[in-house]
């Protein structure tokens, strides 16, 4: 057993070569037994005419026990089995290869490959899990048709599912049974899936736009059947939307969603058999919040949309991951916007846009500022699982969105149509997608490649000049990468094509008609400038009075805009901008400036005072009945502590916390009567409805409650929260009430939350997803000097319901504390970092993918104040010394480099 195919440390995009062999068909037979499942894999293999000749066939395989090999049904002895796979020596040009092996699903805690969860079998093959099931050319450019036979004990595993269509089933001796599935579409191995166990389904039959009958199923454990309606509705809405917006129909006769409670990520788009984390399937009003309902709709949509963008057209190699993920995130964002009424209503559309941009800025901009910074199409990786990132997904979605901003919806649709016309059934690249967009729109998009190849967040500096005499207004844009991290700087080649949307607002608050120099007449009130040089000036003519610029409307590109607005100007934009996104943006800029000034004072031990202008501006938004409740909720929420700390020259989480709490208390106190009135006005009596309107009312009402919970005298908040907790008919209100009680407890040092906390546990003891919320609420609560949250977290790790092996549970307690409670996690004594190091190492031995996510929590350590920085380095070094997996090693080595 020599290691002839040792995996190199770093995989590079430049090293891509086509596979030496192709596999046309795969026939898999499973004898499913938890401790030893036998897999017999029969493949039709041939030499790839497009690749250099090699004598031997090298297949990937991991954690497999070899049983036997045959070529053309005759035993074949010239094989070498090693740690990373198998070498089949001296093979013919075309042959049938049969490999039989065994694996141990019961012992598989990595949740990659074939594993057991709650006594049922599941698979997860993306990105490289298939090689943990059987030996294969486990790379996305090897596409085959699959036939799958599942055999198992009938009583223990009554349901046997795989991709495609069920073609046979029946009983076998000894209480066993079988099912045979056939997937007519060629697919890469990462889209293979099987599920076996005691499951039940909600079923629905629909007709597609062209009149074909389809069977839809949502499979869950029997006690969860009452929580499947929303996922089914979301699936039906997704199917309808993809037909209407992109002309894309469901291609299989049957489409299945299966929920599993042990899962590394959100969900997986396996052909015809999507497997989901229960968190993104199960919902009823008692157990799921408005956010959960919206997330389920978005993730069901996302996985369904992959059927075309990912499955029918797949990736040539994993460097092209954003080809399917960026595009599919863009599609799910557009779907969610449409579902909330965004196609008819600009304000509803802006709400969704604000939520998406907030995630991008808080998470992706931070990624770009650290040691893991990488382009949307990375150049290299050590472990591909570490590259399912905010950059590939969220920035990738922005890069797709910009085609639509440049070409309009119709031009984008033409590009999509051409993409499927050219590449259906193939494994392709990001360049191929860009070529389809360029050719369909008769446009040269060569410069646009830089969006795929350059890391770092571009910065656009804006200066303006008004010429009173000539009535001309010039806007000069300059682009660079600001203070990009070294990892990002390496990739930078030159200026980007930035679609820069702009409007000009007159002194009366109305948009001015826009006429650029050289144009014969004014045309519209928002223009998308094509900004392609390092510096460029755009001149508007016929500008009657000095305007205020509304920059990067609707966040038309993933960049940082620097412009020297005065506080009064920001208040004016917050009150008047016709672009709802920029109204929100103005308020955030105003608050950020104020909060950062206060954080600097807090760090220096100086007294704090809030500018009255901010309180007035926020008060006007709160009472502006022309604004939707959901918009007001977003506009009145302060930027997060994490985002604020990242804006400081040296991150100081304690100072940010002090400043932000100070402003929250000031807003709570100064606007108390308005918050109380708002709370009352936005109640949603009657049966719960997860509609965007009702959710908006609840969001604004619960924001009011959270501001009231900051007051020195918390009596009102305690009274309202207690009543709301007891009377709630939905999880949104119950969880918000509990959160407000926890907050007042911390603020007053009292114990008003303990009764509700205990009640919450007993009420939902049998609902794991709700118990996750119970852990998370406690992990993210404000601490007090008497009781730091780390003590609560350590105590909760001993709770009988805590289980490190379940990713949702680990995330609810450990990740929530480390990533969503910055003031407590970054305690000056380093106790949070020591805890983090312990947990990363424990998880590393159980589930490297999950451990590597937690490991990323300290990657921005160099940007913190010196005292914290040294303690973080010590924790990183501790992990580096004890790490076992390639996943975590890549993260900590890059952080320390
Ligand atoms: N392709 C999945 C998604 O939509 C991502 C995914 C699910 C995944 N499970 C995974 C990626 C496990 C890596 C490992 O978006
Ligand atoms: Zn995806």
Automatic annotation (TrEMBL):
UniProt-listed SUPFAM superfamilies: Leukotriene A4 hydrolase N-terminal domain (SSF63737), Metalloproteases ('zincins'), catalytic domain (SSF55486)
E.C. numbers: 3.4.11.2
Peptidase M1 alanyl aminopeptidase Ig-like fold domain segment(s): 456-564
Residue ranges occupied by any Peptidase M1 membrane alanine aminopeptidase domain in the UniProt entry: 231-448
Any one GO biological process: proteolysis
Gene3D superfamilies: 2.60.40.1840, 3.30.2010.30, Neutral Protease Domain 2, Peptidase M1, alanyl aminopeptidase, C-terminal domain, tricorn interacting facor f3 domain
Reactions listed under catalytic activity: Release of an N-terminal amino acid, Xaa-|-Yaa- from a peptide, amide or arylamide. Xaa is preferably Ala, but may be most amino acids including Pro (slow action). When a terminal hydrophobic residue is followed by a prolyl residue, the two may be released as an intact Xaa-Pro dipeptide
Pfam families found in the cross-reference section: DUF3458, DUF3458_C, Peptidase_M1, Peptidase_M1_N
Record bears the keyword Transport: no
Cofactors (names): Zn(2+)
Protein keywords: Aminopeptidase, Hydrolase, Metal-binding, Metalloprotease, Protease, Zinc
Domain spans labelled Peptidase M1 alanyl aminopeptidase C-terminal: 567-897
MF GO annotations: alanyl aminopeptidase activity; metallopeptidase activity; zinc ion binding
Residue ranges annotated for the Aminopeptidase N-like N-terminal domain, each copy included: 96-191
InterPro entries xref list: Aminopeptidase_N-like_N, Aminopeptidase_N-like_N_sf, PepN_Ig-like_sf, Peptidase_M1, Peptidase_M1_dom, Peptidase_M1_pepN, Peptidase_M1_pepN_C, Peptidase_M1_pepN_C_sf
Family label: Belongs to the peptidase M1 family.
Protein name: Aminopeptidase N
Organism: Paraburkholderia dinghuensis
